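In response to the reviewer comment on reproducibility (Comment 2.3), we provide here a single inverse folding case reported in full, input and output, so that an independent group could reproduce the run without further information from us. The structure tokens appear first.
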């Protein structure tokens, strides 16, 4: 059970990291529009990765309860 909780926290941590990348990307977009295409790709990837991490952590937690 402890292993499952650690794994859930790892997924949540990865989700937070993805959201921080997203915020950094928005900051770059505001400062310089030259990075807009790269930032859009990072934005989409961060959103998908964040959703995936949250889904996996909830699924694993519910599966082992």
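Designed residues, in position order:
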């Amino acid at each position: 059970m402890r292993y499952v909780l650690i794994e859930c926290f790892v997924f949540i941590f990865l989700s937070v990291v993805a959201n921080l990348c997203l915020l950094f990307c928005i900051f770059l977009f505001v400062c310089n529009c030259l990075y807009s295409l790269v930032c859009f790709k990072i934005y989409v990837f961060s959103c998908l990765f964040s959703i995936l991490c949250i889904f996996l952590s909830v699924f694993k937690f519910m599966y082992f309860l």
